[in-house]
Amino acid sequence: MQEMNTYTDQLGREVVIPFPPRRIISVVPSQTELLYDLGLDEEVVGITKFCVHPEEWFRQKQRIGGTKQLHLEEILALKPDLVIANKEENTAADIHYLMERVPVWVSDIQTLDDALAMISNIGKITGRHEQALQITNDIILRFSDLQKSTHQGKKLRTAYFIWRNPWMVAGGDTFIHHLMTVYCGLENVFGEISRYPEVDAGQLLSSDCQVILLSSEPYPFKEKHIAELAAIAPGARILLVDGEMFSWYGSRLGKAAEYMQELWKLLYNCQ
Known about the structure:
Layout: E1 3-8, E2 14-19, E3 24-26, H1 29-37, E4 44-47, H2 55-60, E5 62-63, E6 65-66, E7 69-70, H3 72-77, E8 82-86, H4 92-99, E9 104-107, H5 112-125, H6 129-149, E10 156-163, E11 168-169, H7 175-183, E12 186-188, H8 201-206, E13 211-215, H9 226-232, E14 237-241, H10 243-247, H11 253-267
Parallel strand pairs: 3-4, 3-8, 4-5, 8-9, 10-12, 10-13, 13-14
Antiparallel strand pairs: 1-2, 6-7, 10-11
């Protein structure tokens, strides 16, 4: 018989979870990948349609809707003893519905320290503490090296776009903003605005933006969209970037540090 342990999630809620959980559902793509890297193949019984890593899970695991449109009855039918969710990526209504019926552990990530704490906690909850420690130690080392090498002088004024029609950018209280400003040597021109605000051509032009980063997700920006932004901000340098490297706060962070260092070298013309 499983013992029942109490854990505190990143909303400050106490959650009673069987140890170790044997039927886990992840409704957050970056945390799904973390569960894979923790070696929880048999335990994970459901993922979202956006959980594209690892590919073998995407093909084989049961999909229970999208992050913001969960198929709640399908989730309950799988009889999970743990659902791993996120404050930003899932809707409050869906998560509250599940909280009343099954154990739900919710992450809330705005900084690298938040991400490291999430990885450590999920390792503890799932009985994979040592594996989680290896992952967090690697991330800490890589980001420490990144911070030492990135530009410490005047920062390039940058806008990070996540959506088109309407144009939307990453504001100041986001994980994307944290990585941009602390580790990429960039200044977020919309850092004084919360969350993911809509912006118009006038705001972009008046921002005196030097760099525009077009993310691959959630909106799949392509080369054809560069001309659109160039017409609005002709003086800015416009680049397509891998959104997973800026917004996936699980084990993929181990790859993100190297990616950001290469981006910094490109933007600052460093060899």
